[in-house]
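User: Hi! I'm a student and our assignment asks us to look at how structure tokens line up with a sequence. Could you show me two examples?

Assistant: Happy to help. In each example below, the sequence comes first and the structure tokens follow. Example one:
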Amino acid sequence: MSKFNVAEAKARFSELVQKAMLGEEVIIARDNKPVLKLVPLEKPAQPRKPGSGKGQVLYVAPDFDTTPGSFKDYM
């Protein structure tokens, strides 16, 4: 969590937006009292983890690796 007064937040606004977009909680205070919390409208995308889809693919067609004849001209 980061806390900034209004004047500092104004001067560093782009940086604070970036922090909030990365998931950090950004608090803006006036007279040392929190008045705002800067949060993104959407949650930041979580990085993909290897193996997280294990067991999700239940069927693969037997000819999955076969190139269709109509694609031969493009190869």
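Example two works the same way, sequence first and then tokens:
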Amino acid sequence: MKIKEFKLFIKTFRLQRLWNAGKVFISYYLSNFIKRPIHWGLPIAIAVEPTTACNLRCPQCPSGLRSFNRPTGNLKIQEFKKWLEPIKNKVWAVTFYFQGEPFIHPDVEEGISIAHKFGLYTMSSTNGHFLDKQRAERIIQSGLDRLIISLDGTTQDIYEIYRKEGNLDKVTAGIQNLVTMKRQLNSATPYVIIQFIVMKSNEHQISDLKKLAASLGVDELKLKTAQIYDFENGSDFIPESQVYSRYQKNETGQFQIKNKLKNGCWKLWHAPVITWDGQVVPCCFDKDASHPLGSLKDDNFQTIWNGGAYKNFRKQIWSSRKSVDICKNCTEGTRVWI
């Protein structure tokens, strides 16, 4: 986290949140020491899914592939408020993103504003196709602290290899709208990050990307490694440079993730995901919500977080993480941002 963004984050400091975070950290590292799960406190951060809908057809994304087995839909904002209110003094940050394009949801800014008024650090991620001037103003006025905008090419022909049905000019115009509106409203937020997922098709454009990001006036540029679903036999999306790849060849010639998949997982201690319809799932790798640990339509968050399903899943991760399907592609312990 850069100093400029840290200054935004520190504004959300509260003693209750610090005390809760301390309990979470201590219990996790104690679990590491004794090799069995002990958990204290509530999450430090949560991710909430505004929608499963998306306007693009990205080939390594279940939203883009329209391949979900779970129901699709939009988050009900007042339900979200009801879920968040009991834990607002312990949780530190809320990310308004899981699957889908958040700004397809017509009222996502209302949800962001609720979390902002609770004094939480708020984040989201977008493909950048819904940033007209009016939407840019609404985003800024919602109090959103951080916005990641995906931009995976500096020319349309390269950009659309992954962002299928996307329009690069529309994205760059949207970024300009947001940066200009921030200036006009004299707002420090959102902290705007361009995210460039490095793939074989675009790794040659990194130097051009740096120039483009500078010309657009964003706060930061981040390079991210690509997640590939069926990576074992290689993929056209795996970059040539090992620096930018999550995967490497093993002695048999097949690809494997660089992560050694040690038992235990920090995510299960500090950062759950809530789907649009209130399912609580372990982390962002459970894209199809195949490991639901409870529903906020049936129980409050504290009951789910401390319940039997969560405890059993933590035990399973601690005894045999490699046996859990969603952990196969997990980046815990590896570099995602380059």
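Here is something you could point out in your write-up. Residues 3-224+263-327 form a domain with the TIM Barrel fold (CATH 3.20.20.70).
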